[in-house]
Write a structure and sequence with these properties.
Number of helices of chain A: 0
Distance between the termini of chain A: 36 Å
Number of strands of chain B: 11
Number of strands of chain A: 11
Distance between the termini of chain B: 33 Å
Radius of gyration of chain B: 13 Å
Strand content of chain A: over 45%
Radius of gyration of chain A: 13 Å
Largest interface: A-B, 25 and 26 residues
Structural class of chain A: mainly beta
Largest sheet of chain B: 7 strands, mixed
Order of helices and strands of chain A: EEEEEEEEEEE
Strand content of chain B: over 45%
Oligomer: heterodimer
Helix content of chain B: under 10%
Chain lengths: 112, 113
Amino acid sequence: SQQGEEDPQALSIQEGENATMNCSYKTSINNLQWYRQNSGRGLVHLILIRSNEREKHSGRLRVTLDTSKKSSSLLITASRAADTASYFCATDAGGATNKLIFGTGTLLAVQP
Amino acid sequence: DADVTQTPRNRITKTGKRIMLECSQTKGHDRMYWYRQDPGLGLRLIYYSFDVKDINKGEISDGYSVSRQAQAKFSLSLESAIPNQTALYFCATSAFRGTDTQYFGPGTRLTVL
């Protein structure tokens, strides 16, 4: 079964607005990662947050992690039409395997 | 040049045919992965390999096999394709140590009629 579940499944906003996506997971993790996928293309890594971190920034991206609630959020500020894509969270339980369990994704549409 | 390449990019085949999807990487990573993506289900792990002699089943390995011909090459085979294997297939790599990030190829869209 999927480790991560994203909410909402789809989100439509206007350019310039902020977009927030949430991810919930089920078991303990070593880190949580966010990936972006443009339609029909490969996933691109955006940001990684480790289990001992609570917040991380990268450009217009802000990720938070609440291990007590087993949840994470991705905030994209001042969105652009080029941000239109699907966004996936992926959890890494750690250990030697480096296996990622992906959520079902949030489809973000940014209207110009 | 892309760091992770997949061939073919698109393939249409018939039920019962044997299909091989190939993945090559120039990142020098030890670990390689094959995922399948279906609409609404995210990515699911089919097989993964830590090095040439280490192959492991993932979440949904039934109906698939793999071969790690070299550090840089990891192939996925469908011995006898069936329609519910129609999906988007991705190869990914990661370093043995380091940031734990995975790097994805562009994907192969497979349609089984």
